[in-house]
Amino acid sequence: MVLEGLGESLRHALKKIANASHVDATLVKEVVRDIQRALIQADINVKMVLDLSKAIEKRALEEKPPAGMSNREHVIKIVYDELVRALGEPRDIPLKKQVIMMVGLYGQGKTTTCGKLANYFKKRGLRPAFIACDVHRPAAYNQLEQIAASLNVPIYGEPGSKDAVRIVKHGLDEFRKKADVVIVDTAGRHKLENDLIDEMKAIFNAAKPDEKLLVMDAAVGQQAGPQAKAFHDAVGLTGVIISKLDGTAKGGGALSAVSTTGAPVVFIGVGEHSSDLEKFDSTRFVSRMLGMGDIQSLLEKAQDAVDMESAEKSARRIMSGKFTLHDLYQQIDMLKGMGSLSKVAEMLPGGMGANLQKANMGDAQKRMGKFKVIMDSMTEEEMNDPSILKAGRIRRIARGSGTEPKNVKELLKYYDMSKGMIKGFSGNRKMKRGLMKQLQFNQ
Ligand SMILES: Nc1nc2c(ncn2[C@@H]2O[C@H](COP(=O)(O)OP(=O)(O)O)[C@@H](O)[C@H]2O)c(=O)[nH]1
Ligand SMILES: [Mg+2]
Questions:
Q1: What would be the CATH architecture of the domain defined by 98-281?
Q2: Tens digit of pLDDT per residue, the chain (443 long)?
Q3: CATH for 4-87, among 1.20.120.140, 1.20.5.440, 1.10.1660.10, 3.40.50.300?
Q4: For residues 242 and 214, what is the distance between their CA atoms, to the nearest angstrom?
Q5: Residue 240, helix vs strand vs coil
Q6: Following CA atoms 93, 99, 104, 107 in sequence, which dihedral angle do they give, to the nearest 10 degrees?
Q7: Which residues pair with 277 in a beta bridge?
Q8: N or C: which end of the chain has fewer CB within 10 A?
Q9: Alpha carbons 273 and 15: distance in angstroms, whole number
Q10: Domain ranges of the chain
Q11: Is the pTM of this model over 0.85?
Q12: Atom 4 of ligand 1 has which residue's CA nearest to it?
């Protein structure tokens, strides 16, 4: 995995805490210094390292561990929290009709990433298209055209023309009806020059993109901060994509771009092919880096309190009659572990909790898993208001989730039933029986 060295030294630093007989200020300071050293060796921006270590030290010395958590566990949890915070809360690029503009210096992987994104959206049932706005490198149009042909994605360009703004306008006209996600590839330079920034701003004003994604090579090092800042000041980034993390680069520099811009890393590139793109999730990334096994049990401890809270919130919202696909999704997540399921069950009125535990979880989980995959291919709008799901959208969602329209309809039927049940919850025995039957899937 990427940043192997950093993970190793962080784990080493945390072990000092795990093995200590008791945690005091001297030990905290020593460990914070170890963490600093590890981060700087991984090329993470110096200011980010200082901010991060200050935050860890302050919290570790001042905060009391929550009930049920030892001092030692608490410090480890703080290190995890602060690393996640520094890398930005995870963010998904929504699956919707939109314009995406790629920016970045020459050779960072913009054009290659255009192909990866197109592949990503296509797999999820949306129609991508390219506009080729790199008007400076003679071969740029051909490079994108080859990628377009290999993915069977339409491309608009005016080879030979130097007028990027005109091209983007024409391209948007061309694709207004014919595409969902229009990906605009722009030119790079060897270094940041004012005319690059001006051209980018001009394209930006013409395209009014929903997403402005900075593509950064993992090898960028300490230059990442100033580079990201210049792009951010010019167009306001919504996300960062780190490319070439399959190589030997340390990657820490590119990760620091996040703290400079506040725009989270949304994807990482791990190869030259269109399928070599991975979603980036800071929580998963940090867990992996710190050693999943140890961190996991700790997080579960902390999560218990949160689960309880969100289960309660969800239950309250459901009782008040509001029930979206988000709630259904969350319910399915809770059904995953009997542990947390029993918590939900405890909150259900009447004897339902006991009945629920007897339900056949194996089949249910399989079907629920499929429902989740289907919901992952829905847009925010659809999740909040499933009534807009007509035949066209259902087909798109089925395509995107690798299922059949009839599976999507099944999910919607299940949603309607659950919603109906919930409305009639208070004391209607027939309804309760119906819900039980649904949960056991005796169709
Ligand atoms: N190994 C590897 N190579 C990549 C990755 N992304 C891009 N490249 C390569 O980096 C070089 C420059 O990429 P390109 O997309 O043309 O960069 P652009 O100038 O920013 O458009 C090409 O040779 C790509 O094949 C990646 O994630 N991994
Ligand atoms: Mg390019």
A1: 3-Layer(aba) Sandwich (3.40)
A2: 456 778 888 888 888 888 888 888 999 999 999 999 988 888 888 888 999 999 999 999 999 887 777 888 888 889 989 988 888 888 889 999 999 999 999 899 999 999 999 999 998 999 999 999 999 888 999 999 999 999 999 999 999 999 999 999 999 999 999 999 999 999 887 666 777 888 889 999 999 999 999 999 988 888 888 889 889 998 999 999 999 988 777 778 888 888 788 889 999 998 999 999 988 888 878 887 776 555 555 566 566 655 656 666 666 666 666 788 888 887 777 665 444 444 444 444 444 444 554 554 456 667 888 898 899 889 888 998 999 999 999 999 999 888 999 999 999 998 888 777 766 654 455 544 554 454 443 33
A3: 1.20.120.140
A4: 8
A5: strand
A6: 100
A7: 269
A8: C
A9: 38
A10: 4-87, 98-281, 291-440
A11: no
A12: 272
Torsion of CA 142, 144, 145, 150, to 10 degrees: 130
Minimum CA distance residue for ligand 1 atom 25: 272
Q: Are β-strands 128-133 and 265-269 bridged in parallel, bridged antiparallel, or unpaired?
A: unpaired
The sign of the torsion formed by the CA atoms of 352, 358, 360, 362 equals positive
How would you label 31-65 residue by residue, b for 16+ Cβ within 10 Å and e otherwise?
Answer: bbebbbebbbebbbbeebbeebbebbbebbeeeee
For the chain, report the end-to-end CA distance as a whole number of angstroms: 44
Q: Which atom of ligand 1 is nearest to the CA of 143?
A: 16
CA 131 – ligand 2 centroid, Å = 12
Query: The CATH number of 291-440 is which of 3.30.70.141, 1.10.260.30, 3.40.50.2300, 3.30.2270.10?
Result: 1.10.260.30
Interacting residues of 378 by C-beta distance below 8 A, sequence separation 6+: 95, 325, 397
